[in-house]
Amino acid sequence: MSDSYQSFEYDVLVIGAGGAGLRAAIEASAAGCKTGLVCKSLLGKAHTVMAEGGIAAALGTLDSRDSWRQHFCDTLIGGNFANHWRMAQIHAQQAPDRVRELEKWGAVFDRTSDGKGNINVRHFGGHTYKRLAHVGDRTGLELIRTLQDKGVHSGIEVHMECTIFSLLKDGDRIAGAYGYFRETGRPVLFKAKSVILSTGGIGKLYRVNSNSWECTGDGFALAYLAGAELADMEYVQFHPTGMVWPPSVRGLLITEGVRGEGGVLKNNKGERFMFKYIPPKYQGKYADTEAEANAWFQNVVVEGQKEETVKERKPPELMSRDVTSRAIWTEIKEGRGTEHSGIYLDIASRRTPEDIKRKLPSMYHQFKQLADVDITKVPMEIAPTCHYMMGGIKVDPETQMSTVPGLFAAGECSAGMHGSNRLGGNSLSDLVVFGKLAGEHAAAFAKAHSTPKVDESSLIQMEKEMNRPFENQGGEVSYSLLADLQTVMERGAGMYREEALLDQGLKDLTALRDRLKKVSAEGNRLFNPGWHVALDLRNMLIVGEAITRAARERKESRGGHTRTDCPGYSKDFAKKRIVVRQNNGSMEVVQEDLPQIPLELENELIQEHLLKPEIMKQLRGEAPMVS
Ligand SMILES: Cc1cc2nc3c(=O)[nH]c(=O)nc-3n(C[C@H](O)[C@H](O)[C@H](O)COP(=O)(O)OP(=O)(O)OC[C@H]3O[C@@H](n4cnc5c(N)ncnc54)[C@H](O)[C@@H]3O)c2cc1C
What is the CATH number of the domain that holds 314? Predict the structure, then answer.
């Protein structure tokens, strides 16, 4: 057996080379650990490269009122108080240093126009102040380029186009990982003292999504199968603005930066409808008339005046994603959508063609080249698209270690930071803040522990499982199962959920699991995408079940989780998080107490008027919602 696979040994193995994985690997390597980095795609092509609008950090370069405390409060309010408060605090406190560090490592952020050479920041939904450092609308590309440059010079060994199929354990603790090279199909064993999962999100479980092909939820399933707990799996984010037309580009994301640069949402009557949807938590913070919103746009966006010097409030198009998605969905459902079941996003009538091309170059090209739509002339047709997973592997906020000793997680596959809804820009900062912490603590764990033993006989069983699609001759192809899974998830646990649909979803998932046992792959292990999808489906079905079970358990509506049969926040669930884990081969769902922000800190923030007690009571289900 040992002749048939390649074998590598590391102190720290990082699985995933997006922003989180690269940052983690840099840190582990800097701590003197022999570090390996594995990724499904080529280095530099991870999903992070698609990030557009920016990275959120309270740098205060354009507004001196900004602070980590304000960023922290915005994140909690945006997440509807379902965040792990300590993760949100660490993130807000450390994000500015991580952004400055990126700059030191060579990231060329856009600069302010005041001649002071500061990093420019832009508006994004749910952030009180301009807070997103950016590189046009190609921020993810710059982040990856910078981290990759730094990483390859740090002695990290990279294994590209390699998929991890299983984690390995020595007793309770992690011992490494086993997988295959996508090109040759050749198996590979990685022995490691600690392992970091940074495998990104789950978007490919849904038919309409903005994610790259890699986002099949592998890390969630690998961790679950290794005995780790998953948390907050009911919270899936549907970004308000995905392309709806033409069908070939359905789901592709339109950055929130379009609205940050003045874009407005209109229904088929030409009405700017967002004014009707300002929820209590945002009342007083956003303009409630078009005249006020337009004056703010003119003063702040067009003329570049400082926000604190203008009396108007920001337009409601800049509210958080959950609120905006729900408003768009309601307009479409009530018959005020476009002919392709979307809503108009109009920047053409607000900015000059030159401004649009300069500020939003990727958006301009995306529409022009892929859809033959000139966004400097006509509005875009958009609708919500599955975009981000707030839930994931449950980790300790200080170390990022999961409930399995030696197994760490960072980035989109970990849970806690964003609560029930992520604010735009808070993912890229999450990656570098918690990527660094995961790398640091995985290295410390590796130094403190001896080399674990790998039971090589268990690899025979894994090989059997991996080869099963070749033995199921004449069975169903993996792509039809994938398409059905996406439909089941959209119907059962999509943007709107209810108990009967979730129950049906669970039945459908059981049927899909049975079908997976018979899925077959043609040919052999040499670059064989049909086989790859068959193996990914195991993970996707586990993640789909976890989302559906968690969504069934949370009998309230909060952030990205909307139950039409349980509208509004519930007191019973406000301080609970839903945890999913394996128990005797079955998926168990339990409610745990969600750690609460210390009273002393809460009172300080209330005294500073950063948190409002009446809003907190509403979010905690302790006071009725008033609109
Ligand atoms: C279009 C778009 C625009 C966005 N814009 C922004 C923005 O402006 N600001 C912001 O904050 N966020 C933005 N986001 C969200 C953000 O980009 C992601 O949340 C973030 O990049 C996730 O990074 P990650 O490091 O966790 O994982 P990823 O970048 O998804 O990387 C995952 C890595 O894991 C690897 N991997 C997965 N499974 C396996 C396996 N089984 N074996 C081996 N390797 C594996 C992949 O190959 C990849 O290298 C945007 C998202 C999209 C889709």
Answer: 3.90.700.10
Distance from the Cα of residue 304 to its chain's centroid = 31
380: containing domain: 241-385
515: in domain: no
The C-alpha atoms of residue 344 and residue 591 are separated, in whole angstroms, by 40
Residue 434 CB partners (closer than 8 Å, separation 6+): 20, 87, 90, 91, 400, 410, 411, 414, 417
Q: How many domains does one find in the chain?
A: 1
Model confidence pLDDT, tens digit, residues 370-420 = 888 899 999 999 989 999 999 999 999 999 999 999 999 999 999 999 999
Residue 297 lies in a domain: yes
Whether 78 is covered by a domain: the verdict is no
Q: Which of the residues 207, 259, 422, 558 is marked catalytic?
A: 259
What is the H or E stretch that residue 503 is in?
Answer: helix 499-517
CA of residue 26 to ligand 1 center, whole Å: 17
Residues contacting ligand 1 via CB (< 6 Å): 15-21, 38-41, 46-48, 50-55, 139-140, 163-164, 198-201, 210-211, 214-215, 218, 253, 388, 411-412, 424-428, 431
Rounded to an integer, what distance in angstroms lies between the CA atom of residue 454 and that of residue 191? 7
Distance (Å, whole) CA 268 – CA 245 = 15
What tens digit of pLDDT does each residue of 130-158 get? 999 999 888 999 999 999 999 989 999 99
Give the CA dihedral 122, 123, 127, 133, nearest 10 degrees. -20
Q: How many CA atoms lie within 13 A of 195 on its CB side?
A: 34
Give the pair of three-digit tokens for residue 165: 């199929």
Contacts of 332 (CB under 8 A, 6+ apart): 341, 342, 343, 383
The residue count of the chain comes to: 627
- Show the CA angle centred on residue 278, arms to residues 273 and 282, nearest 5°: 150
Specify whether 100 is catalytic: no
362 and 136 in contact (C-beta within 8 Å)?
yes
Helix locations, 383-498, DSSP H: 426-448, 458-471, 478-493
In a domain, 114, yes or no: no
**C-alpha–C-alpha distance, residues 38 and 160, integer Å:** 6
pTM of the model: 0.91
Would residue 340 show up in a list of annotated catalytic residues for this protein? no
> d(Cα 260, Cα 252) in Å, to the nearest integer?
18
